[in-house]
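Reminder to self: tokens first, then the designed residues, so the page reads top to bottom the way the pipeline ran.
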């Protein structure tokens, strides 16, 4: 399903082309989540919809730049959900958050 289509005009050639924007939700707030969010900044192809964490304190790194949430049940709609938590937490996280996705 196409979420958003972006039309861009680049001045040197005045050529038109279409680009698909992928929407992403990151589940987790650690080093991997922080590095991913930083790498997504400035990328017109990626829309980081929300970062989900266990507590508001853990979301402080993200709150000025992205939407944040501590609600693991009612996740925003996205094309991709990236689980960026410790390995031993993945089963719990998956069980909690993927009920409605």
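Designed residues (101 positions):
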């Amino acid at each position: 399903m196409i979420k958003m289509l972006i039309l861009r005009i680049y001045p040197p050639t005045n050529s038109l082309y279409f680009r698909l924007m992928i929407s992403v939700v990151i589940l987790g707030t650690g080093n991997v989540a922080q590095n991913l969010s930083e790498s997504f900044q400035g990328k017109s192809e990626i829309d980081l919809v929300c970062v989900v964490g266990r507590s508001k304190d853990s979301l402080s790194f993200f709150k000025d730049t992205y939407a944040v949430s501590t609600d693991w049940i009612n996740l925003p709609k996205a094309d991709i959900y990236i689980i960026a938590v410790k390995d031993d937490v993945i089963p719990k996280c998956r069980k909690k958050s993927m009920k409605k996705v």
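Strands lie at 5-10, 15-20, 22-27, 46-52, 68-69, 80-83.
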